[in-house]
Amino acid sequence: MAFDTITGAASSTATTFGGEALNKVSNILNGGGSEVASIYDDDIFVVDPSDTTKKIRFDAGNLSTSTTIVAYAKSNNDVNLGCVGTHELWIPAGAFYTRTTNGATYTTRETSTNKVMITSFNFDTTTQEHAQFNWSTPANWNASTVRFKLYWTCTGASAAQTIDFDLQALARSDDDALDTAFGTAQNVTDTYIADNDVHVTSYSSAITIGGSPVAGDNVIFQLIRDVASDNLGVDCEVLGVLLEYSTNKSNSS
Question: What is the pLDDT of residue 15?
Fold first, then answer.
C-alpha cells in the first residue's frame, strides 16, 4: 500500500498519511461511503479572494452540549446570514388612533356564543374615514418601501360585496416638521365571506414612504377606506394591519 507524507511548517512534526485515510477523504469530497468530517471551527475561514481581511468563521461555541444544528437553503433562494431580509410587523387596531377630521371609530364587541372580544376600527360605508398609527423604525431598516395586508370583519354584509382600503406613509426625523404631505398610497381589496369571519387581504403593492426616510425614523401611516371603489354595505371593522419591511444589516447596533 502506498503512503504519502505531508510535512508541516519547520517547527511541525512530519505526519504520515496513509492510503486508507486518503480513501476516506476522497469519499467525503465525492459523497461516497459513510464518513463524517469534523471541521474545527476555530481553524477554518472562508476568505474573500480580493480582500483577505474579509473573513467568515463559523463558531459552535454557544451551542448546548450534544446539540447539532443543521443549516440548509430554503427552495432556490440565496441565504442571507443573520436577520437580513424581509420581516413582518403586526399592528393591531388597538394601536391605531382616529383622525379629528373624518376619523374612523374604535369599537369593541363580543361574539354571542364563545364571548370572543373583537376590537376594531370601524370605517363607514358612505363617508371616507381615516385612522393612523406610527412605527419607530429599527436602525437596520433599509429605509425603502413597505407593503401591507388588512385584517377585517363585519356583520350584515351581502355576498360578492367588496372592500377597498388605501395606506400611505410619512417618515419624520429629528427636527422635521410634522405637518407634511404623506407619500403615495397603495390599496388592497377583498371580498366578503361571512359575518364575523376573519378576512385577510393579499399584500399591497410597494408603498413609497414620503419624507425621504432614513433608518431610525418615526413613520406615520394613514389608513383610508376608499368608499368610491368599495361597495361593502356596512361598516368595515378593521382588526389590524400586517406590515412587511426589509433590513440590510443583521442587527441594529
Answer: 56
Residue-averaged pLDDT of the chain: 87
243 in Cβ contact with 150 (< 8 Å): no
3-state secondary structure of 98: strand
Residue 75: inside a domain: no
CATH number at residue 235: 2.60.120.260
The three grid cell numbers given for residue 46, joined into one nine-digit string: 472562508
Domain residue limits at 46: 3-56
237 contacts 167 by C-beta, under 8 angstroms: no
pTM for the model stands at 0.74
Same domain, 166 and 41: no
Asked if residue 28 and residue 91 are part of one domain, the reply reads no
d(CA 118, CA 110): 6
Three-state secondary structure call for residue 247: strand
Structural domains counted in the chain: 2
Least confident of 6-15, 74-83, 197-206: 6-15
Q: CA 134, CA 178: separation in Å to the nearest integer?
A: 12
Q: Return d(Cα 229, Cα 213) in angstroms, integer.
A: 30
Using CA atoms, how far apart are residues 132 and 134, in angstroms rounded to an integer?
7
- What confidence category does residue 48 fall into, taking pLDDT thresholds of 50, 70 and 90? confident
